[in-house]
Fold each of these.
Amino acid sequence: MFHALKSRAELLAKIRQFFVEREVLEVETPLLGASTIPDPNIHSFTSQYFNSALYLQTSPEFAMKRLLAAGSGSIYQICKAFRNEDCGKQHNPEFTMLEWYRVGFDHHQLMDEMDALLRYVLGGTPAERLTYAAMFEKFLQLDPHAASLAELQNCAVMHGINKVDNLERDDWLNLLLTHLIEPHLGKERPTFIYDYPASQAALAQINNGVAERFEVYIDGLELANGFHELGDAKEQRARFEADLAKRRALNSPEIPLDEEFLAALASGFPACAGVALGIDRLLMVLLNTRDLKDVLFISLATN
Amino acid sequence: MASISTNEFKSGLKVMLDGDPCSIIENEFVKPGKGQAFNRVKIRNLKTGRMLERTFKSGESIQAADVVEMELQYLYNDGEFAHFMHPETYEQYSTDKTAIGDTAKWLKEQDMYTVTLWDGAPISVQPPIFVFLKVTETDPGLKGDTATGGSKPATLETGATVRVPLFVNIGDLLKIDTRTGEYVSRAKE
């Protein structure tokens, strides 16, 4: 246990050193906000502040983007993030996140920097990079951009997975990814997957038909998710509205949109790329364990 | 029965799947970076004993199964059904051959067994880890031979056949491990 505590302290010190050397500014933003992310697959904790609701932030993204819009330049933050979701060996409702934004970078330049950071804290060799399409081709001989829902479903069934009701096309892609591909990613060296289907853009720019988004895997564990950030306030609002429509269809709670964030985008947002990396999981990799309980002295994880 | 959401899944939970009562052995929450999360669950079918893997969309609900385990005393077999009794309430339960399965060869009158009931009816019968049974048939024992390590078949009072050391005689009481079906030792009455 004390070994894990000490390793965490050293890891955080190293990360801060890495960004000091690159002149990226450390910032803090509120963990409680009057709004939160409307993504129907991300569940926020709600707290009560007198007569109004406040949400524990699922990531510092919107607040940090307001700083970027205000002209902060490149920034990073190490903070707690909260998700009202299942516990497990790789999930705890409260976790530590490193999030950083690089003004003037695209997702490829940010992957370079991510690679440098991973080597700085973990050692090892440079990461391999695969497009989302190349990854599906390599492991499942499928074109994820063209395959029909039925083809994706058949692929799952062929690999011994049961049919799951009410899944959309992207859900099947995610099922195949999590069940059949992720366990093989980042085995010899870290794997970066980039250029996601446009339908899975989240807050990334869509160019040439793909979302300029990337994820980082080490030894089957997903560590980070990055975007060539969307700066178009109108497009951002449209994506939020689509999320809200999905929420309504699922009978999920309504979320008030973060109008201050949208206004910040509209006021002029610098071209940038940003990424969030799970520190607890990074520590799991460093300490060679598959269980969060080994890196969290106290956690809600039970199974 | 109540319905149970995937976020309540934990090992030991009894649920209905494809019309059969099942027990959750292991529950793993899997979530991609963005998008739909899943619960990947290892499940045992309590009727067949078979293990299977199932993926659920997180947030989905399934029916709970009314499954209880009881320690019951075995009374007798009427040729079609085996009859058990609760030692305190004296309530009786009859089970067919399917529910008894391989446990049939370890059933001895008066002994206690773990019976799994689904909606009040037995679906499986588990013997204790060790049972004590008398030898009814075996070749004559070799007196004093406790060291050569040879073995021979012996039939026990329940009809089970086990390999026993050469010194074992008809009428001996033996301790048997029901997990492996192997002889452990001789026992005193």
Note: The mean pLDDT of chain B is 92.
Amino acid sequence: MTWSGKLAAGLGLAGLIVLFGLLGPLLTGDPATIRDIGLTPPGDGHLLGTTITGQDVLAQLTHATRGSLWIGVLVGVMATVLSGVFGIVGAYAGGVVDEAFSLFSNVMLVIPGLPLVIVVAGFVPADQRGTWTISLVLAITGWAAAARVLRAQTLSLRNRDYVAAARVSGEKTWRVICMEILPNLLPILASQFVFAVVLAILSEAGLSFLGLGAADSSTLGTMLYYAQNGFALQREAWWWFVPPGLIIALFGGALALVNFSIDEIINPALRDRVRRRRDVVATTPVAAPVDEDVVLTVSDLNVVYQGATPVHAVKNVSLTLRRGEILGLAGESGCGKTTLAYAINRLHRPPAEVTSGSVVLDGVDVLALGPEELRAFRWVRLSMVFQGAMNSLNPVTPIRAQLQDVLRTHRPSMSTSDREARCAEVLRLVGVDPARLGSYPHELSGGMRQRVMIAMALLLEPQVMIMDEPTTALDVLVQREILNEIKRLRDELRFAVVFITHDLPLLLELSDRIAVMRGGEVVEYATAEEMYLRPQHPYTRQLLASFPSLTGERGALIR
Amino acid sequence: MTTLEVRDLTRTFHRHRAVDGVSFTLTAGRTVALVGESGSGKSTIARMIARLIRPTSGEITLTGQGGEPVARRAYRDHVQMIFQDPFASLNPFHTVEHHLARPLLLHGRSRAEVPHLLERVSLTPDLAGRRPHELSGGQRQRVAIARALAPGAKVIIADEPVSMLDVSIRLGVLKLLDRLQREEDLAVLYITHDLATARHFSDEVLVMHRGRIVERGPGDDVLLRPQDPYTRQLAAAAPDPEARFRQAFRQGGQP
Amino acid sequence: MGYHLRKVAFYLVALWAAVTLNFVIPRLLPGNPVDILMAKLQQRGGSVDPAARQAYETLLGTGGRDSFAQEYLAYLGNLLRGDLGVSVSAFPAKVTDVIGDSLPWTIVLVGLATLISFVLGVGLGALVGWKRGTWLDSLVPATTMLSAVPYFWLALILVALLSSGLGWFPLNGGYDVVLDPGWSPEFLGSALYHGTLPALTIVLSSVGGWLLGMRNMMVSAMSEDYVLTARAKGLTGSRVMVRYAARNAVLPSVAGFAISLGFVVSGSIVTEQVFSYPGIGSKLLQAVQNNDYALMQGIFLVITIAVLGANLVVDLLYGLIDARTRDRSTVS
């Protein structure tokens, strides 16, 4: 089901129950009327049968639903307001206020709610235990978890540039909170409200069932209390006991559906995926490479993002890579360069799909490999270095485990000491002290992390290394060091590189050949020298002109 | 002439000096480029001038057109900021109209000026009804520039205004800023890590390293003939295809 | 301040807050608990000497005779000596003895049920997230529906179906009453047999929360670059799932343990009542029904301390499984 489907189903079901509670009591007569037809099974006259004293179960159910919903809404509103005050205001104010509010919320969170409610209810004499008292107590014990969520979200929103921009333009604090932050918190507030309502209805049912509920109300919980004390189940009067619980469960389930859809609105990654169609495309038979030196041949590769309107992300791309060569892949965001890189290693995920073409790496038809062959092929023949090295390394395990994982999987016969030695060796190759093996990623600088990634890519001495914007997130000086390192290693170890970036001048300096991509197509494919001296395609010229030269004539560019 | 003077500005975070005794002056009709790597303190300076964070010590003084000091309350009529990421600096919940009308109203102007503002940044007035996600990166950054102009500001702090944009539209946005600076006699602080655009789009370049200004002067002096070892390193690290093909370039002629 | 020290300090503050709450509640709410207790005590033939009255007043308030500060100090003093007063409903037993008898039952029941529920929910959640787009997806709405069912209602339906209907489990109680409580195999077997259905209720009702949370985090983790890198490295599917995706996805579940534990403890009180289980939850309700205020407060305090203790242990474990927390300087 899509998120809108879930929302519709959830709201529809919840709406029906609300209508049942609102309109039902008007149609079903007095729930308290006692008749001498106790425990009549459902049938004519009494659609849901009668209780032990002959009261109509349906009439009781409508009134009880109304009572439970009322308490749910009451508590929901109060708890949401409390969590908003402590979560949003605290986080926005920051400093001591935030520390105090957050400490208070966390303390309230770890003190178990229901025992506290029971104790409070136990001290209040039954005749003073009204709906408002119970609602207030439930709200006071139930807001803390939501406050914590709202605080975290507000802290992240507070640091957004648009909040800073509103402050710079002179907006008052209350207006920044109400107009800039609050609207973006709406989905979370809605989801916390829904959660508070469900929790309140459940807690109230529990309290009433224990005989500690509000004295002046009839809710689904009190109905269950009477059913239990009338031994409904022992007398097999399921029509008395089952419906109230079912209404609670259905209402909770409906609101859970609503929350699912809110989750999916907030986090699109959670939405249902198109199911995987076929995994491997039929490839054209491969002719033996003419040139002995060629390690990677991509021919007529097409990648399509399937969907309502399929997007042709890579169109008829053909490339060849020779031993020890650096091939530059240049283009702007959305041009298909990353999709192409992933497709070469078949890392693309649905809805992306290779629709035709072939990838041959040193005689291996990559697109024809079975799942296990593909797994064994990866990293051994072709390794990758991704853009954000912070995100490419697993944050919760040390570097050693992540390097050794590769050897453990691809060289199972290697001894422990050999593994350790090899890991230290590759770190030394990229200029990182092997003592760093025990470090966690967050303990390393950005440049150091990217070096570790390159070391990892070298572990199995692959023929080809794909580097996707490996230096974009780095500062100029670190970028220069990493580029020099890549050139040196390539000269020493003779692997070939596909280097992807938007920085055309960098490629002109670094690569042997360059392919310029736009709209999924390679618009120009030439040696770096050719491209620098005689760019053919207008887009290549436009890209070149976008990078003013540091040393070129000043002012020629603009004035 | 509107002038913003920064004197001995210092900001410490947890005993770390992010900005350490920085002084410079922004004057109407001039662009000053502040160059440095991430963590050098350049964004902290921007945020202090925009009054988003307080300096630990030092002064920021603003004098108006006639040389009179500007009152604290009126500061934001004169000084505005353009943020790095146009995807983050516009609220996804609000329309372009809202983003421009609010600063207009806050500074005693009329909502009716929105179409004119959009035209000043070379956008068509029909964009006013759109929300940020319906705009391209370049369009968003132009809206952000229009927002900075809305209060009638004479001092514009541009914190890496093009580094999040696609390369082919960067120059367009920088040219727009440059045109506005000249036509409207603005004082611009252009913060960037890109030495080449700093040189081409500024009258003065300040190089920052670890919170301090290590070198300053006209762009050609600082970047073509750097004196400070750090500036020299920076200038040498930028990709330079020319160096590789200089030989071929001389023989081959026009690129 | 180090991570561990900060955590311990936080729980000390929380403990102080709970103790103070316990002190304040009877003094702020309407009614005159001391008089009610004295009347009850008299009915049971207990002594009505001034000493007994004074003991209750220390606990519940003197009605304005002593200053708030004096009462508070006296109350704290009693707590430090481990004196929680005398129970009226189990007169002349001390509150601490009543709690001591029932606490182990609850700790074993709730502890085991929570552990099973956590392991099951997190395990299934990881699998459901990893195998997205298969039949496993239907586990999410199914278990979520179960969490929306009131604990006691589910418990009673289970009793009606499995105990009364099929006779598979005993109707109620914590052990076969013909046996003497002790470490004999018969007794342990009987306790296990009696505890199965209550534990099943708790597991069924709480597993959905873990499952959903883990599944959502798993889906998020799978779009992270480190998982992509792990796949590119040619690691086996199970290794990528466990070492890379699940290892990271489980962190929020552990961090959110406090919230979930609160729900489980609340639910188990009601469950114990349904099964007449000899645990602390049933005792709490007996205390409420008999206006046994001293026992009520004592039990609340003990439940809170147990929950705080469990949370502290989990938080300290969290520091072990996520190295980053140890280096961070944010507060709790």
Note: Chain C has a mean pLDDT of 82.
Amino acid sequence: MVEKGTFKVKSGLAEMLKGGVIMDVVNAKQARIAEDAGAVAVMALEKVPADIRQEGGVARMADPQKIKEIMDEVSIPVMAKARIGHFVEAEILESLGVDYVDESEVLTPADEENHIDKWKLDVPVVCGARSLDEAARRIGEGAAMIRTKGEAGTGNVVEAVRHMRRINSQIRELVNTPDEELMSFAKELRAPRDILRVIAEEGQLPVVNFAAGGIATPADAALMMKLGADGVFVGSGIFKSQEPEPRGRAIVDAVTYYDDPETLAEISEDLGEPMVGINMEDMTDEDYIQTR
Amino acid sequence: MKVGILALQGDFREHEAVFAAMGVETEYVRRPEELEKVDGLVIPGGESTAISKLLKKWGLFSPLQRRARDGFPVFGTCAGMILMAVEVSNTVPTLELMDISVDRNAYGRQIESFEGELSINGTDSPLSDEAVTGVFIRAPQVSEVRDGVEVLATHEGLPVLLRQDNLLAATFHPELTDNRGIHRYFIDQLVGS
């Protein structure tokens, strides 16, 4: 007997991506560069977050034609983004044979109340989170992988650091919460109690947790690994830099050798200019993507 | 005895957890000199393209190939198996250790990933006393098994667990299930001998 679409095989693919880098690409040529640089997967999208930020307007799922071109080009898994709550975009991506769907705040949300019911899909879904309660709600909805939201398209790692640290400190608090207080803890956090119980027992999320949103250098990637990320997503950081190929390879190396500063120094040499980046003080409330 | 786990990319922590539960000492291998200190090596699941590039770039490829050809025990799962095969359906440079041909992602994309029960070959197999479920994720298929390679288990008629002397390879992920039989087999039959 054969069972497909089980939570085990959905979360299992994320396990295989650990210690790796998932790169945003907008066409087959970039996908080829990403695979050659050692990416474990590519994220197919219409525009990288830095351009979405700059150009404004409604950001939607990428053109299926473009996604198919990227799938034909590379042998590694291909992910693609659907709008928050837009389960039809997710179903379309599933029908294309995309390996992972990212229910992403980088696109304009389609539903302000509800996320996609991810249990109904056979394709696994990754969701962003800024806190433990957000992660637990997404896992409760069937997310098979979590990533920090960070602040996409800024080239500034500060928000990803904030989110990873917050998740870690909330897990520590949860682990020290007595069983009889778990219900009120769950109520206070607005998070599903069953998921919190699992996290309390394991001392970690029950799914893989990657870092995303603002990673632009090998040192950024290594920092996120040191803070406990299982791997990293790099969006604008590679193809908005001066020399994408060496930078892509360097970030791949940094995720493997994150614990070794001498090697990181060697890896970080002579990569050309990183993406310019945005300081958070220069942003208004409306500029923030993570609050979606 | 200490088992090395290649920790360049992939689910190396899951392999470590299985060995820890068995009381087997392990060490991560990311450097050529770390390879010298272990009595066997696990190549985990992951992306074979990424692991292959890291092996070459960081100087592990040739030393590992040399040692494995000299009888050093190696156990690969999924991507690990691909990297051990002498022939692969696309351009991933492999260590060319086990005399098999492998098709990458032969079942199809992620949507075709599955869990399924394995058939263990031979009633005297050390694996036969437990029902084993295999977790197959974008799994490869073995298209050709040449002389000297023993098929230990199959799924729907296809070889999924194979041994050739000091080499053990699975197309699936025993590290993702509670069953420790295959890791036990690696320790008892390949590393211990």
Note: The CA atoms of residues 107 and 139 of chain B lie 6 Å apart.
